[in-house]
Every structure is written in structure tokens, then in C-alpha cells.
């Protein structure tokens, strides 16, 4: 169905990165074998990449065995919703200069757990859409 009301608009590249830069929480999607996983993460967008910290465990294992990932954020303000989806390649940072740079980013975990691993998502594709939500008048 064609959108003739202007209720949906594609975000341009700068708008998608502006929204990514203004947020710090999203969802990481990856697959372990044939099992898809979606997990919440705190992140930071910098240098047109996505960074996050993680402990050893499921997330790190998942992005290590299958580096192809997706990442998504949403924002709803009043009657306007925006969504950004990133597709890319995740890699654990191992070079000391990359880790030192990542340590300067504002990556704040929600839980006071040790998260010594830094992961960078090198972005292959980023898309975003904005939705104008009409009030429900069907009564």
C-alpha cells in the first residue's frame, strides 16, 4: 500500500547517525547456528561505528562465531516515532590502541558487572524511518 499521507518518511544518512549518537540503548541481533538472538545493550556511536562493552558469555560468543549482526534503536516522542536499523560486522577489539580509544567513549553499563571486552560494529548499511502516528479515531 502506497503511503500518500506523509505518515512515513525515510531518514537520510545524517539523520540516522544523529539519532544513533543521541541514544545509548538499543538491541543487538545475532545468530548462533540457526538460533536468532536479540539482546539489549548500552552502546555508543562514534566514527560511524557502534561500540559496546560486554562480559565473556553469550553475546561475545555469539558475535565471535557469527560476526554478521543487526542493531536497532527506536524513539517515540508524542505522535512521532523513529527507528534506525544497522547491519554490519562485529569484532572484539584486541589492539591496545583500539581498546584505549574505546575506553574514552561514554559506555555506561546498567549493571555494575565487569565488562572488559569492547566490541565494534563496522557498519555496512544503516536505514531509518520516521512515522507520524495518527490518533486512533475508530470508536
UniProtKB/TrEMBL annotation:
InterPro entries: Pyridox_Oxase-rel, Split_barrel_FMN-bd. It holds the Pfam family Pyridox_ox_2. SUPFAM superfamilies: FMN-binding split barrel. This is Pyridoxamine 5'-phosphate oxidase putative domain-containing protein. It comes from Mobilicoccus pelagius NBRC 104925.
